[in-house]
Amino acid sequence: MMITETHTKGILNPVKQPDDWFGLKYNMNLYRGCQHRCIYCDSRSECYQIENFDSEVIVKINAVDLLADSLPRKRIRGTIGTGSMNDPYMPVEKQYNLTGGALQVIAKNQFPVHVLTKSDLVLKDLDTLVEINKTFAAVSFTVTTADDDLGKKLEPGAPKVSRRFQAMAQIAGRGIYTGVLLMPLLPMIEDNSENVGAIIQMAADHGASYLLPSFGLTMRDRQREYLYQQLDQHFPGLSTQYRQKFGLRYFAPADDAQKLYDLTREVCDKFGINLSMPKFTPEKISSKASQMKLF
Ligand code: SF4
Predict the structure, then answer these.
(1) Does the Cβ of 224 fall within 6 Å of ligand 1?
(2) pTM of the full predicted structure?
(3) Residue 57 C-alpha to ligand 1 middle, in angstroms?
(4) Are 1 and 59 in contact (CB under 8 A)?
(5) Cβ of 43 below 6 Å from ligand 1
(6) What is the domain range of residue 136?
(7) In the chain, how many domains are there?
(8) How far is 149 from 50, CA to CA, in rounded Å?
(9) What torsion do the CA atoms of 21, 247, 190, 153 make, to the nearest 10 degrees?
(10) CA-CA distance, 67 to 63, in Å (whole number)?
(11) Residue 200 belongs to domain with CATH number
(12) Which residues lie across from 211 on neighbouring strands?
């Protein structure tokens, strides 16, 4: 995959609507494009205008400096999220350490953070996350299948599911909130009670304190086209069934989603796993404290 370095003008985007999932106040994308190449990835959709999603990663090499400059000026201390449009721990992070650098800036400025990833590479920043957790830190791992082999077909560039859970156990062991984002759930591939039950069992075994489920898949333009090409390669005949069943609908629900939700509630209750995650309540930073940080 081609790596292109660029300079960006801004790095911290405000989240305007209340964010019920993660409680984010700001969003941060340090890269563009994603080496994990999940076959269902929504970031391929035309509305995001990321050309060459599967062949190029753009590295925002001045991102950490920009964050160091802008964060002390913020008047609201609220959760900074990373991992929505690309994975902050894709392999290129080993070379550039943008996520690691950004987390150090966040720790220094005592801001809360939520990291969403599919990679155990997050462990390289565990000490920094522990420091941030004096304010608030949470790390969510996306898991859509309990099966490493199936995971390799659906998320070919991402670390194995089992490695994600091993990382989760270490993060939980250091007292940081961690849990599972169980979405999407691909119809006719992953939407069965064995898969969902196995994911919850693994989450419980590895210290998850929350699990956020959504049972189905969104599909838009380029994202749908790419998914169907990949289904043809790995699951012959399935793209025809998708076309017949979902047409051009935006949301392709899991089969018997209600049954899966009921199962999820029941099993999560049994293990003491919450179906929402803890959130940091945004607070005003007094201008005096803010000025002191600037000098
Ligand atoms: S890890 Fe996330 S952003 Fe990256 S390809 Fe997969 S779904 Fe897309």
Answers:
(1) no
(2) 0.95
(3) 12
(4) no
(5) yes
(6) 2-294
(7) 1
(8) 29
(9) -100
(10) 6
(11) 3.20.20.70
(12) 180
